[in-house]
């Protein structure tokens, strides 16, 4: 008979929290996207200005399809802004553009946590291809051997570690962004409050993702230990 273990309940709570945070984030960005910046700068212009102020001349600011698809790519040194952020002149666009440039500044200054996170990416690329199948095999074979599930847990722990390493990287990028837009006079006090709020909700998506990953890891561990006790 199926039992709701504490780890399983935590996974469900994390899934619900993630859904709520994502909806709240979209709502906040839609709200703040309606507020035009007093200085009239677009996300692209803000990004280019922040890069220039930090002496970064080898990073391009480009537009990418989708919404909330903004990211910095250290491989080709590009700040990728979603179509809305790239062209909009709003508090939300200012926050996102400056945040992604915050990652570019991290890269240029060899920020330790970003270096650590980037070093994990190649290994995780390989792990992600095989891990789901190993975990599935581990669950199906629990009654005969724990080896596949144990290997799957070790591999999944790497993805969980990656999720937590991402947190200081994201929080630091937002801190750099808010400090710069305030110092540069990009936003008014009211616009600064909106930009800070938008970035806080964006950061919460990473927090929930990390906690969800940890909850899932604990779930697999509970299966491993539970099956072990039953043998």
Automatic annotation (TrEMBL):
Alphabetic keyword roster: Membrane, Transmembrane, Transmembrane helix
Highest rank taxon of the organism: Bacteria
Record's keyword annotation contains Transmembrane: yes
Pfam families: Zn_peptidase_2
Transmembrane segments: 6-22, 147-167, 198-221
PANTHER family linked to this entry: MEMBRANE PROTEASE YUGP-RELATED
Descriptive protein name: Zinc metallopeptidase
Source species of the chain: Hymenobacter psychrophilus
